[in-house]
Amino acid sequence: MSRIRTAGLLKMKQEGKKITALTAYDASFAKLFADNGVDVMLVGDSLGMVLQGLDSTLPVTTQDVAYHTTCVRNGAKNAFVIADMPFMSYPDVATACQEAATLMRAGANMVKLEGGEWLVPIVTALTRQGIPVCAHLGLLPQSVNVIGGYKVQGRNSEAADKLVHDAQALEAAGAQLAVVECIPSDVGERVAQAVNMPVIGIGAGNRTDGQILVMHDMLGMNADYLPKFTKNFLTGHDSLAAAVSAYVSAVRDGSFPGPEHSFAE
Ligand code: KIV
Q1: What is the pLDDT of residues 13-61, one digit of tens each?
Q2: Quick check: pTM over 0.90?
Q3: Is the Cβ atom of 23 under 6 angstroms away from ligand 1?
Q4: Which domain holds residue 178?
Q5: Which CATH number covers residue 164?
Q6: How many domains does the chain divide into?
Q7: In this structure, is residue 145 part of a structural domain?
Q8: Closest-lying ligand 1 atom to the alpha carbon of residue 23
Q9: Strand runs (DSSP E) across 79-227, as ranges?
Q10: Using one digit for the tens of pLDDT, what is the confidence trace for 85-129?
């Protein structure tokens, strides 16, 4: 796999090439994803749910994410790896810089933080310290207790305008990538068009600059519950490699996510 960096991701957006991303937590899957064309791997705090069996991401620690970031880096030396900053690891600038440094030392290329314009001082400081930042907007799982559940965001025009405003503010502060989660397709498109940085969607329609899924959802590993915006790519394929390739192809040609995986406009 050739080495992708932020400039390469920006070039993909400028050339209209979709970015393919998956969560990854260990060396074996990281190698499988790298070998089958996944551009970006996220060591998500979703590990609390899919690896630790918890019902939210809140108990996940920076040490947990750092451990899995090193595992992913060991399996995919050239991969572009984003590490999630967990719940309450960025309450102020100084703490955010220390926690992010732990993740960068563990092997991350970039850190991801959940939140809008209020993160501007933190994003500015991280960027100045040489730590690339991915913003996370829309549904913010770390704020599930404030939001009152895992609900689609940006449904009215005021909320949609706020998402666009937040993305622009975070980009101006230094963010070089954004993830938007569970928002209507037209809002996903608006955010992607409003900023220069690439915007990767999950449950945000197929008009963002790329897609990400939790790997366990993409492989249909939670048979009890498959969120609307995910698809089991193992169905109809006889190997993990074929399933990952099918996901990569479907994101690149825009066939995933289809309307059945997206939230109405
Ligand atoms: O933690 C995670 O896996 C994430 C994705 C849902 C984008 O943040």
Answers
A1: 999 999 999 999 999 999 999 999 999 999 999 999 999 999 999 999 9
A2: yes
A3: yes
A4: 6-261
A5: 3.20.20.60
A6: 1
A7: yes
A8: 3
A9: 80-84, 110-114, 133-138, 177-181, 199-202, 210-213
A10: 999 999 999 999 999 999 999 999 999 999 999 999 999 999 999
